[in-house]
Amino acid sequence: MITLIVLAGVFAMPLLWMVSASLKPENEVLASPPTFIPSVFQWENYAAAADGLLPFFLNSVKLAALNVTGLLFFASLAGYGFARLNFVGKNVAFALLLATAMIPSMVYLIPQYMLFREIGWIDTHFPLWVPNVLTPVFGTFLLRQSFRGVPRELEEAAKLDGASVFGTFWRIMLPQVKPALAAVGALTFMASWNDLFGPLIFLNSTRLQTMPIALVLFQGEFFTQTNLMMAAATLTIIPPLILFFLAQRYFVQGITMSGLKG
């Protein structure tokens, strides 16, 4: 227990220092010897940092919402199909799906960029969510494992009551895997929210950029004002932190459920 507490403190220290620095006057951030508690709490640092970040924040929220809803929809359908439906080549198709996860993204980056350029998707948000929701490899795998852990008696009872395949999926099976859905949704949100490489490659207009790019631009504009940079970084991590604390119970339960039946 003591070891875990020490490790937690070590990993939390950079985060705590960032929050502390975000509330300090500029001349106190890099003072020697360093101080952890600000002599004066400058809450106006957050107002200054937030000025101009709202468009980037809304873009990140939009992309995260599209990624989460789209990926959960397609991953749950695919996971249920691989878990419960019988069709020719099911195991081969699932193996091929998992094999695609082993291909480094750098391998298909140039062909992907050329394709998006040909169809007019460069400098739009489409490349940042459409490929993700149509290729939900990890989400499909996790939900397939969760669906396989649901007792077949529930599904058979629904069929005896005259429920269709989709009705059984929607009303009976999907509520049984809510923890796994929460886990996939949380991971998808964080991946979308923290994505720096995608916007850097596919977006040119500043008005379309997301929060990670905003931090890069902010750093260039306020390079010498460390306290404002730390305030902007703190504002950026608030949504993922809130999501994590709200979904951590479901996250652990969802990951556990996925391993109940292989």
From TrEMBL:
Pfam families: BPD_transp_1 (PF00528)
Residues covered by the ABC transmembrane type-1 domain: 57-247
Subcellular location: Cell membrane
Cross-referenced SUPFAM superfamilies: MetI-like
InterPro entries: MetI-like (IPR000515), MetI-like_sf (IPR035906)
Membrane topology: Multi-pass membrane protein
Transmembrane segments: 63-82, 94-114, 126-143, 180-202, 222-247
GO BP term, example: transmembrane transport
Top-level lineage group: Bacteria
Tagged with keyword Ubl conjugation: no
Example of a GO cellular component annotation carried by this entry: plasma membrane
Keyword set includes Membrane: yes
Keywords: Cell membrane, Membrane, Transmembrane, Transmembrane helix, Transport
Family from the record: Belongs to the binding-protein-dependent transport system permease family.
Official protein name in the record: L-arabinose transport system permease protein AraQ
Organism whose genome encodes this protein: Occultella aeris
